[in-house]
Amino acid sequence: MKYIILLAVIVILILLVLNYYPPLGGKSSAESQKRIKESPQFSDGKFRNAIPTPMDYSLKDTSEALIQTIKGNPRGRPKGSLPIEPFDAKAFKEKTEDQVVWFGHSTLLLKVNGVHLLIDPVFGQYASPVSYFGPKRYSKKLPAEIKDLPEIDAVIISHDHYDHLDYGTIRKLKGKVKQFIVPLGVAGHLTKWGVDPDRIQEQDWWDEHSFQGLTVVSTPARHFSGRGGNSGSTLWSSWVILSENSKIYFSGDSGYGPHFKAIGDQYGPFDLALIESGQYDDRWANIHMTPEEAVQANLDVQGQRMIPIHWGAFTLALHSWTDPIERVKQAADQRDLALATPKIGEIVTIGTKEFPSSNWWEEID
């Protein structure tokens, strides 16, 4: 009898955490649910990829991954400090050119036609729903804290995984952001965290949203979503940002697929493509690209210049921490692709021929 009571207590505690622990997010409103159910991407109670994307791992695969994780990779994290360029908010605001600043992983600050955009902001030290536990950031400091950022016109979110949508970051940011532009279903998390629903724009794939002279388009990705075990309840997206002067593509998280060519055919060529290039594994090939596939994706979307992202901040896979940038650089050289390799915090000006190109990671132990 005591075991039954213990089991019941455990079940109740789990249900309480899943329903009331704020970092796990919230549920969509009735209006959002209506749009979700009408989406071509939604069927049988969850969002689906455009092409079959199996994620069923065998017991052998799971066991091997667990053993490798326990063993660890001595090159899985940098031993030394990463070079960080301090962010000068005044200089960023005053310059008239379109610019982008990489904050590590997939967090990016953009200025496009004078509009300040923040993509997948994660400013916490852990890519996790629990403070002080989980994948820890390589750098103790970022180029800037949230309080040091200029006023943000819009935050754009690719999907609701913890390394792209961070509870603590959104709570600190919400007062200085005019609008949040997100895939279908993600608004439920933001409203749970105190964001005014009137400041949230939810988009399905191929929806175009006009915002302060820009066109922001939610485009397909090949991935998945879910917080607290609620997989597939929200959509995942890549994003196209169009202005009079610049065309920018952000891949979000995605396995390789035909959607890249479709996006390039409809909106390319792009002045700059920000492409996921790290945190991959052969077992996850359908939902995360290898560096070589990232280069091909850039060619498919017709990116004139590529910045590799989704690396340089957290260890979320078993490869060495420099493996993504080394492999993507080699593949880019072989394909004669223009690659930019900025340090974290380094300002990159869009539309010029002068781009950061140093192998700065080679200087770190």
Automatic annotation (TrEMBL):
Protein name: MBL fold metallo-hydrolase
UniProt xrefs under Pfam families: Lactamase_B_2
Region ranges (Disordered): 27-50
Domain Metallo-beta-lactamase as annotated: residue spans: 117-311
SUPFAM superfamilies for this protein: Metallo-hydrolase/oxidoreductase (SSF56281)
Function field: Counteracts the endogenous Pycsar antiviral defense system. Phosphodiesterase that enables metal-dependent hydrolysis of host cyclic nucleotide Pycsar defense signals such as cCMP and cUMP.
InterPro entries xref list: Metallo-B-lactamas (IPR001279), NAPE-PLD (IPR024884), RibonucZ/Hydroxyglut_hydro (IPR036866)
Lineage: Bacteria, Bacillati, Bacillota, Bacilli, Bacillales
Catalytic activity: 3',5'-cyclic UMP + H2O = UMP + H(+); 3',5'-cyclic CMP + H2O = CMP + H(+)
Gene3D superfamilies: Ribonuclease Z/Hydroxyacylglutathione hydrolase-like
